[in-house]
Each structure stands twice: as structure tokens, then as C-alpha cells.
User: Which sequence fits this backbone?
């Protein structure tokens, strides 16, 4: 059995190498590739995706997994080897349902679609993107159909990023949450004058912004010897091993939080990957990443949203960092005290861009996308009507209408990349982040004081011990049970938001 | 037959994609990869190399080639399809002799060896590199042995970069050339005071150097929409398609020609790749590149050396560019006239670093490496004695001894990458460049006047028509015959050097 296990590992090594190579090509495409390289890059990524798929769905893998099933049953459920066999089996059962030419077509289309989305967004021309989005959605429907989901075609796509999750389960969380958030937004809107964030809307030198971001994420524990930070149209995290985990951000010269909070968000993803147990190297188990591998994206988002919001927009965090930020930008911030800055940074109001939305309204952006995806995949909305649908729902959910499609339906990279079913995980992750934060405070009552003094070691150690090291050994539910003794709870999230924003806005 | 040809092309597409992906990973490793990424990168590149090899040596390819042989015979020898089948057959016959695990081992070793070479060079510690070089040479001997060369093990490695060439043929060119060059060096040394290059040894702002280099290669026809320029430890050119051909250089702040001439050299390689016929896309035929694919590296070097020396160090070239260079560096060059600058740039004297050697002494650097490689592969020199052997031959060939190994045996990337057999092609290319230049002047008598006025279009058109478009359809000999009506001639090279340097030094 040891020998068969090794054969399985060798096979998974090869698949992991091909996927990592595809990721390097993707990173290059987003950062440094000259425009002329697009067509060849799409072909190359298509070939790598196809080969990775082909090596994984090979019947030899199925045979090895079959032979190893009884062996795995004798092992401790939480052990690396049992988890490897269990997760590999789950992914294999899904992967064999997808024809190889569909995998290659999805990858090739994604590369070209992204190029066209970038152009469409730049030129504010949805029409440029429309044929690519139609093709992408058609391919996603084909993908979903491979899994023959019993209730809702969209469930099959949700399952890609959050194994076992269904749209019904998501609705069970989103539906009670929605009126609570809308109530909170109404309360805040009634007190909108309590917060003035004009101090953030000054000119902040882009290089100095980047330098400060680097300083912050280094302090949080992100290793630049095992990563790097670059500029891209849309921030993302990507990893080629636990020792090469790269983040990107974008800079807005006249709004300071954009680059910084984006960098912290991505560092949250990156700390997860950099903290994976080295024993999981090259096994795919360590790839709890951005690719459609059936890992739990909600847990990934819980880490990024944890750092971005619960840490990065907290009073204790800025107690330590604000004097340093003032030092970096004395002209802009010299006359603003910590309390005013903290309130400015947490200003909440309905706005257009998801990645720059505040914590309270963020959930509504996600619900909008979740509903639209569900409708698109089930043909309840036509792709060509998407700008109008988007704008109508923005008005309905947030009470505002985007002046341009670039600020509306074209703002996110996800649909151009074929990431349908991913969006709900941002909110599930935000909700879980609060649950984890409550647990961390129970496990280490000194944590708030430590953060106030700029000590983040124990936060990271706790995360590594409880979450990061495990890669994708466990499902969301399994992990939540192991760390917090419970499945996902939405009530602490509402309490957290209500307490924090009642204090800020004097509700 | 059309169908079988398409099957062959599909297969070659996949191989080309894997090799291109490997090249992207290599480029990233040399430019932006964090240090921590080394191990995983070596594994990933090993996997890609192994798979590319595996797909190419598959017996299905052999079967297709067999079936297509008679069909190819009916086609015009120079046609794309006949050339594709012919070159694929030649490479297949070689590739099937190399076991897959050796391919993977060579690739994996090269990645790690390069990391260690960089460190050894930085720290001037040959001992750090020694075990990797020993392993690399051992692997190269294993590789050579696969081909069972009749006379000399080293011939098999020469053949990797220059199909059909043998060390005996190279010696037939190098042996008569050597005394001629040594005589010329002696003549120059006796008149060394005729040229003063101190004007080049001033501080030149690195960013301004890079900007000027970009301006020059753009004028020569290099497209930045289909390429880019970055900084690396050792300059190189790499391509992932004809539309993504990247160059790198290094900057020496206190010696201006280093970055500029390196950039022009690499642009010469890059213009070749950017000029490949689009019909050869993804067929490997278009990859007349830096990888060990059996293409003619001498022809590639003829293009880089042509731009670096015959154009880039010529009087007509600087007639156009010198006023522009003076504008970029008025403080350093304002008081130096064109004639003095031209002589300074062409100063010839024995020196330590090959890539910065002048045209005259350059050949001796190559002969040294050719002789050492021949001796290393045939066990006439032990790897651990290489620094002493290197230094002794530097004294013998050039009359100087490197003060450190970083300036001696550790200076080139080639051996760390496993590129044994490549060096002689630099000199063969230099010699062929002169032969091409004589032909170009015959074909277009106005070319010198055009260069003087900064017009390089006709130079590039001539090269594209005669050389670039063909990719690796033809062998060196076939191409030389088609373009110049003759095989390689060394006499024009001696005449060129003698005329140019007699004029500069007043011999």
C-alpha cells in the first residue's frame, strides 16, 4: 500500500506542477506580458490545463484510489495520508465527469476573455466583452451540466469553490442576514454626518503608498523572501508553492485605503498559503488556492477578510500603525487624530465598487452577484441585458445606480475568468472570519492588547495551528467544527457589525 | 496524408506549448522570482521538460513521421511542410535516444545549479558551484553518450546547438584563424596608445542608460508590443511565441557600453524570433531559440553579433546615434567628438569578461572555452582544477590572469545551465555575420548611407526575407548557401577585422 500511495503522490506531484506552471503563466499575463503575447499565452495555458486534467483523470488514478480506499479507512481521519486519499477521491469523482476538451476550452476562453474584459473596462464598452461573457457563461453551463445537480444547475458551480455547499444553504444564511444589514445601512444613513472621510481623499504618493503597504504586511508576517507584491488591474493572490506566494494590488493616488486595504486583503490569502504544512508540498492538498480545485474558497476568504476588516479596520491595529502612517504622510494626516482617522476609514455608505465597499454594505454587493449568477446560469436573465439588470439591482439593493458600466457590471475580473459560483464565498468568508475572531479572543484573551502594541505573532501562530497548516485537508464544515466547535453562524457577524458601527455612528 | 500532417502538427503544438511554458518559468526565475521559489521551480521545470520530451518521443510521432516520409519527398524541399517533416524527423531521431529521466534530471539540475552559480559568482566562491558543475558535466557526458558519436564525445553536444557540426570542422576554422587574430592583437598592442576610452568610464545614470538602449533597439526594429526589456544577472533573449520575445541586460553605472551593447546583442536575437513567419507558429520550427532543440545557434549568434558589432560598433551607426547619445549624457560626452568616441568604443585590448570583450579579442575567449569544454567532456581536465586551468589558458591566449574566479571561470551562465557545446557558435556566428554583411552590401549598395541616416528598415527587411522568416527550416550550411552562395568562410572575417582595426589603430 505504501508503494501505491507513493504512486498516487507521484501522479499528484505532476498534476500540481502543471497547475503551478499554469499559475506562473497567469501571473505573468497579468503583470508583465506584452500585449502581443495574448494568443500564444491562451494556447499555452489551455495545453497545461488540459494536460493537468488528463493526468488527474487517468484511470490509473482511479485504480490507485480504489486500491487505497480500505487502507485510508484504517488511518486517522485527520492524518495527511487519509486526507490526501479522501480529498483526491472527491476531486477525482468530480473531475472525471468533465470532458478534456471542455477543460481546455474553458482555460483558453478565460485567457482571451480576460484580455477583452480589460479592454472593455478601460473603454467602458460592455459590447466588447459581451460575446466573451456569453461564451463563458455557455461554457459554465456546460460545466455545471456535467455534474447533473439535482435542484439547481448553479449548485454545481458553487460546489467547485465550496465543496458540499448549495444555493439553498447559502440562501439560508443570506436571507435572514439581508434585512438585518439593510436595517443597519438605514440607521447609518440617518447618521451619515457623524463620519467625515475627506482626509482619505487627498493625494497620497503612489510609491509611498506601496512602501507603507509593504511595511504593514511584513509586520503581519507575510514573507517577501517567499513572495512579492506587484501592480495589476485587479488585485489577486497566486501561489506556485508555499514558498512562492505572490500578491498584487492597485493604487489610487487620491484615495489612500484602496491600495493598502487591498494589499492587506491579499496578504491574508497569502499568509494562508505561506503557512501550509511543507509535508503537503506538491500534493494539491496544499493548494487551497484561487484555482477551481474544489477547495473551500470561503475559508480562504475568511482569512483575507479577517486581515482586511477585523484586523485592518480595527481600532487596536491603527493604535499601533496610525502614528507610522502619519509619519509617512505628515502633510495629509498631521492634523487628524486617531479617532477621526479610525472613523474615516470605517465610513459606511452605499457605493459602486465591491472591492472598495465598507464592511456593512459589502454583503449587499455579494448578494447582488449571487442572485445574478443564479439567474444567468438558469437563463432567467439574458447576458445582453446584464448592464440593465445590474443597474436595476444596484438601485434595489444599495439605492444607487452606476454612472458607467466600468463602475458597474464590468468592475470584477471573476466572470471574465469563468469564476461563476465564487462570489458567495466572499460573504460566507466574512461571516466565518467573525466566528474565528470570537474564538481567537477566547483562546487568547491578550490578543487585542498584543495587536495594540503591533505584535501579530500570536495571531498568525493561532491561524497556522488551527487553519493554515491543514491546506485543504478539511471541508469548511469540518474545519469550522474543529476550530470553533460549530458550523457557520451568521448571528455573531450581525452582532459584530452592529456593535462596531453603532459605536462609530452613535446609533 | 493531410490528416496525418495535421495530427503531427497538433502533437508539435502541444510540445511547443510545454516548452514555451518552461521558458516562461525560466524567465520568471531569472527576473522576478523570490528566492524561496527555487526548489518548486526546479520541480516544475523538470516536469515540463519531461512531459515535452515524452510527448515528442511518443511512438505515435515516429509512426506519423514514417507515414509522412514519402509525402514529404514529393514536396518542394524548401516548403514549410517538407521542412517541418524533415526537421521533426531529425530531432525525433535524436530525441528518442535520450531517456526521459535524464531529460528531467538535466532540467532540474540546471535550475538549482544556476541558483548556486549566481551565489558562487556573487561571493567569488568556486567551491559553492563545484559540486553542481561536476553533476552538470556528468549529466552532459551521459547525454553525449546517448548519441554514440564516432570520434569525440563532445561532438554530440556541439551537434545539439549546431546540427551536423563536429569539433573537427570547428577546428578547421578556428585553427587557421587563431594565429591571424593573435598577430592582429600584437599589432594593436604595439599601438595601444592610439585609443583612449576613458570617456566611457564615467558615471552614466543607469535609468538613462536603459532609456537610451530602449530607444536604440526600437529604432532597429525591435517591437516592445511583442517584447520587453528587464534586468538580470546575465543578459539573455527568450521567446514564448514570435509575438512575445523578451530581452534582458545588465547595467554597469561606470562603463556605458556594457548595458547598451548587451541590449543591442540581445535585440539581434530577438529580431530573429520576432521575424519568424507566423505560419510556423507553435510548430517548433519557429523556435530557432535558446533551447537545446537542435537548431542552428551559430545563425542565431550571427544575428546578435551582427547587430552588436557590425552595426552597433560601426562608424555609420554612430554617425546617426552619437548626437543623440550626447544629448542623453551631455556632461559626460559633450566634449568628445564622434571620431574619438568611435575609437573609444572600439578600443581593443585583452580583457577578462567575454561579453564585454572587443571584437578582436572576443574570438580568443571563445577558443579558450571551446578547448576547455572539449577537455572537460573527454576527462582531460578535472572539474576541481578548472579555475587553475582557466587562468593558465587566459594567460596563454590573452596574456592576462583573472584576479578572481568571479572575473574568470564563474563569469558565464552557460555551464551552470548545462549549455556545453554552445560556446563555439558565438565565434562561428561572428564569422558568418561578416559573410552576411558583405552579401547585404552587394544586394543593397545604399545600405551604409541608410544606416548613416538612421534608416534600418532595409537591413531588417533583408534579414527577414533571407533569414528570419525561415525559423529553423534550414541548417546553417543550407542557409549560408541560399543567402551567400557559399558555406562558411573565415577569410572575410579576418579581412573585416584587419581593415577596421588597422584604420582605428593606424597599423
Assistant:
Amino acid at each position: 500500500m505504501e508503494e501505491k500511495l507513493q504512486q498516487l503522490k507521484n501522479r499528484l506531484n505532476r498534476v500540481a506542477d502543471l497547475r503551478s506552471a499554469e499559475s506562473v503563466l497567469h501571473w505573468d499575463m497579468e503583470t508583465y506580458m506584452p500585449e502581443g503575447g495574448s494568443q500564444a499565452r491562451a494556447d499555452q495555458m489551455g495545453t497545461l490545463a488540459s494536460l493537468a486534467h488528463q493526468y488527474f483523470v487517468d484511470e490509473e488514478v482511479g485504480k490507485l484510489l480504489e486500491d487505497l480506499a480500505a487502507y485510508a479507512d484504517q488511518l486517522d481521519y485527520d492524518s495527511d495520508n487519509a486526507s490526501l486519499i479522501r480529498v483526491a477521491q472527491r476531486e477525482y469523482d468530480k473531475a472525471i465527469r468533465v470532458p478534456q476538451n471542455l477543460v481546455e476550452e474553458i482555460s483558453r476562453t478565460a485567457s482571451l476573455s480576460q484580455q477583452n474584459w480589460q479592454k472593455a473596462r478601460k473603454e467602458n464598452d460592455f459590447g466588447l466583452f459581451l460575446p466573451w461573457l456569453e461564451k463563458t457563461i455557455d461554457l459554465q453551463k456546460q460545466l455545471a451540466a456535467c455534474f447533473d445537480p439535482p435542484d439547481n444547475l448553479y449548485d454545481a458551480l458553487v460546489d467547485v469553490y465550496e465543496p458540499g455547499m448549495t444555493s439553498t444553504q447559502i440562501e439560508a444564511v443570506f436571507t435572514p442576514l439581508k434585512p438585518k444589514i439593510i436595517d443597519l445601512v438605514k440607521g447609518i444613513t440617518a447618521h451619515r454626518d457623524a463620519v467625515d472621510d475627506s482626509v482619505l481623499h487627498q493625494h497620497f504618493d503612489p510609491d509611498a503608498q506601496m512602501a507603507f503597504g509593504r511595511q504593514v504586511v511584513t509586520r503581519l508576517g507575510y514573507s517577501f523572501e517567499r513572495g512579492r507584491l506587484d501592480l495589476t488591474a485587479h488585485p489577486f493572490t497566486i501561489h506556485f508553492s508555499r514558498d512562492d506566494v505572490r500578491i498584487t494590488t492597485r493604487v489610487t493616488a487620491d484615495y489612500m485605503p484602496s491600495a493598502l486595504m487591498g494589499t492587506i486583503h491579499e496578504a491574508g490569502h497569502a499568509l494562508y498559503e505561506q503557512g501550509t504544512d511543507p509535508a503537503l508540498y506538491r500534493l494539491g492538498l496544499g493548494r487551497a488556492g484561487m484555482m477551481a480545485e474544489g477547495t473551500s474558497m470561503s475559508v480562504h476568504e475568511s482569512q483575507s477578510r479577517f486581515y482586511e476588516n477585523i484586523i485592518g479596520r480595527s481600532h487596536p491595529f491603527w493604535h499601533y500603525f496610525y502614528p507610522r502612517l502619519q509619519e509617512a504622510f505628515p502633510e495629509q494626516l498631521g492634523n487628524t487624530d486617531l479617532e477621526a482617522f479610525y472613523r474615516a476609514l470605517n465610513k459606511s455608505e452605499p457605493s459602486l465598487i465591491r472591492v472598495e465597499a465598507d464592511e456593512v454594505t459589502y454583503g449587499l454587493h455579494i448578494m447582488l452577484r449571487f442572485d445574478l449568477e443564479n439567474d444567468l446560469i438558469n437563463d432567467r436573465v439574458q447576458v445582453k441585458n446584464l448592464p440593465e439588470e445590474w443597474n436595476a439591482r444596484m438601485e434595489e439593493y444599495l439605492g444607487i445606480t452606476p454612472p458607467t458600466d466600468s463602475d458597474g457590471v464590468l468592475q470584477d475580473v471573476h466572470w471574465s475568468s469563468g469564476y461563476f459560483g465564487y462570489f458567495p464565498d466572499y460573504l460566507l468568508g466574512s461571516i466565518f472570519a467573525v466566528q474565528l475572531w470570537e474564538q481567537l479572543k477566547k483562546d487568547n484573551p491578550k490578543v487585542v492588547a498584543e495587536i495594540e502594541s503591533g505584535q501579530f505573532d500570536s495571531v498568525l501562530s493561532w491561524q497556522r495551528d488551527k487553519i493554515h497548516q491543514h491546506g485543504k485537508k478539511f471541508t469548511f464544515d469540518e474545519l469550522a467544527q474543529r476550530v470553533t466547535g460549530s458550523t457557520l453562524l451568521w448571528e455573531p457577524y450581525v452582532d459584530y457589525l452592529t456593535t462596531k458601527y453603532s459605536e462609530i455612528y452613535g446609533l
